[in-house]
Recover the amino acids of this structure.
C-alpha cells in the first residue's frame, strides 16, 4: 500500500504556565480553545470545514471528560465536526497526531486539527480512603445517636488530602512515581547530580536565548507563523511567554536543592526535572487533496511514526526504543538527522537515552542492533531548550515537540528531524518530520 503524504499546515500553542501551588488561571479547555481559535483564524478554510478534532489530554476535569468535543464546539467548528479525546499519558498529544494520521491514511479524514492539553495545576485533591469510608458511615447513620457515634470515630488524619497528580504520576504496576524511574536510570548509567544540573542549566539558557531572539514569535520573512498564541484570563490579564524559565539558573543555585524522589541517596531534584505546568498545543494536518482544495501551503511532512514499550521502571528510555526503528527503516544514523527533540521529563532521563545509544551492550541486547548506535551531537538536541525550563503539561508535550521541531527545522534550514517522548507506564513514541 502506498503511504499518503500527511502535511503539517500550521500549528500553535499556548504559553506554558508553571503551576504555583494553586489552581492556575485557565482550565484545560480554556487553553485549548484560545490557542485553537487563533490558529483557525489565520487559515483560509472555515472551522466547520475540518473533518475532525482530536485532542490528547491525560487529566481532563470531570466536567470535560471528552474535552476534544467540548473544545471543538467552543472553537466554532460546528455541531457536525466530530471531536474526541485520546490518552497515552505523556504522549497524549503525539497520539492525537498519530490517530489523525491513521484516519487520513484510510481516507476517513483529509483535514484534521490535532493536539494536546493539560492544566495540571488543577489536578484534583482527593479524600483518603479512610475519609471516604467515614463519610459513608456518617451518611448511613439515620439517628442522632448513630451520627454522634460516627463523629466520635473521625480522626484528624482522615482529612489529609490525597494529591491527584501524585497518584497519576505513580505507576500502579511497579509502584514507582516517575521521578523514581529517573533515579533508576541515573544509577544504571552512572549519571551524576552535576551532569543532571548542567543539563538543566543548558535547558534554561537555551529557552532564554530563544525568547530573547523572538524565535517563538515566528518570522514573517521566512514565512514562519507565531508558535505561541497569547491567552487572556477572565480578568483580561495577558499571558504571552512561557513563565517557568529561570534566567538565574546556575550550577550553584541548583546544587542547593535536595533530592526529591530519593531523599537519602538520590540525584533527581525539582531543579533538574520538568515542571508541573499548564499548556496546550495544536497542529493542522492535511492530505494532498485537502491542500489542493483549500489552497494550503505546507510547512512539513510527517514521514513516519513509531510506538514502543519497555519495563515501566525504565520508562525514560522510551525515546530510544521508539526512535531507533524509525532510523532503521529509513537508513538513518543519529547524526543524519538535522535536529532532535527529546522531551525532557527529567535531565537524567534524556542523558540516559544518550548513554543507551552509546552503549554497545544496550543496543545489542535491548534494541537488537549489531553495535552501538553512536553519540548524538548535543548541538542537534533540543536546541531551544525543553521541558526542564518550559514545563511538561503531560497531555500537550507530545504535540509541542513536533510543532517546535517543525519550526526549528524551518528556521535553521534543516531538512529532517525526530521528535520523541518517554511515556509513563513504560512506553515511547517518536515521529520523523521532513520540511517541504
Amino acid at each position: 500500500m502506498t503511504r499518503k503524504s500527511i502535511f503539517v499546515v500550521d500549528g500553535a500553542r499556548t504559553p506554558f504556565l508553571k503551576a504555583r501551588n494553586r489552581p492556575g488561571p485557565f482550565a484545560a479547555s480554556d487553553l485549548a480553545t484560545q490557542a485553537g481559535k487563533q490558529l483557525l483564524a489565520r487559515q483560509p478554510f472555515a472551522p466547520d470545514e475540518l473533518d475532525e478534532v482530536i485532542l490528547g489530554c491525560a487529566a481532563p476535569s470531570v466536567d470535560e471528560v471528552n474535552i476534544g468535543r467540548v473544545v471543538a464546539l467552543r472553537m466554532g467548528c460546528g455541531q457536525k465536526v466530530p471531536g474526541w479525546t485520546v490518552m497515552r499519558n505523556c504522549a497524549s498529544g503525539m497520539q492525537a497526531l498519530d490517530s489523525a494520521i491513521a484516519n487520513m491514511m484510510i481516507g476517513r479524514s483529509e483535514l484534521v486539527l490535532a493536539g494536546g492539553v493539560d492544566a495540571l495545576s488543577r489536578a484534583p485533591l482527593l479524600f483518603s480512603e479512610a475519609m471516604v469510608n467515614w463519610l459513608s458511615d456518617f451518611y448511613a447513620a439515620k439517628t442522632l445517636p448513630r451520627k454522634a457515634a460516627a463523629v466520635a470515630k473521625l480522626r484528624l488524619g482522615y482529612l489529609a488530602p490525597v494529591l491527584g497528580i501524585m497518584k497519576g504520576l505513580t505507576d500502579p504496576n511497579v509502584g514507582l512515581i516517575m521521578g523514581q524511574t529517573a533515579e533508576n536510570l541515573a544509577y544504571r548509567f552512572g549519571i551524576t547530580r552535576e551532569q543532571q544540573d548542567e543539563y538543566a542549566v543548558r535547558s534554561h539558557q537555551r529557552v532564554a536565548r530563544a525568547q530573547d531572539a523572538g524565535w517563538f514569535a515566528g518570522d514573517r520573512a521566512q514565512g514562519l507563523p507565531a508558535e505561541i498564541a497569547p491567552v487572556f484570563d477572565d480578568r483580561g490579564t495577558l499571558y504571552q511567554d512561557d513563565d517557568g524559565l529561570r534566567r538565574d539558573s546556575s550550577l550553584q543555585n541548583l546544587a542547593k536543592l535536595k533530592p526529591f524522589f530519593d531523599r537519602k541517596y538520590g540525584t533527581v531534584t525539582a531543579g533538574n526535572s520538568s515542571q508541573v505546568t499548564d499548556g496546550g498545543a495544536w497542529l493542522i494536518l492535511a492530505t494532498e487533496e485537502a491542500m489542493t482544495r483549500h489552497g494550503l501551503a505546507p510547512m512539513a511532512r510527517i514521514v513516519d511514526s513509531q510506538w514502543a514499550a519497555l519495563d515501566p521502571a525504565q520508562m525514560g528510555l522510551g525515546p530510544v526504543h521508539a526512535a531507533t526503528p524509525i532510523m532503521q527503516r529509513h537508513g538513518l544514523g543519529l547524526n543524519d538527522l538535522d535536529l532532535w527533540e527529546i522531551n525532557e521529563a527529567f535531565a537524567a532521563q534524556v542523558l540516559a537515552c544518550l548513554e543507551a545509544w552509546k552503549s554497545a551492550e544496550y543496543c545489542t541486547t535491548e534494541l537488537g542492533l549489531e553495535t552501538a548506535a553512536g553519540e548524538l551531537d548535543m548541538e542537534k538536541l533540543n536546541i531551544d531548550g525543553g521541558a526542564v525550563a518550559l514545563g511538561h503539561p503531560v497531555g500537550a508535550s507530545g504535540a509541542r515537540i513536533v510543532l517546535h521541531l517543525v519550526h526549528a527545522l524551518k528556521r535553521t534550514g534543516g531538512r529532517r528531524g525526530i521528535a520523541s517522548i518517554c511515556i509513563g507506564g513504560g512506553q515511547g513514541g517518536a515521529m520523523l518530520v521532513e520540511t517541504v
User: Anything to note?
Assistant: The first strand starts at residue 6 and ends at 13. The chain has a mean pLDDT of 96.
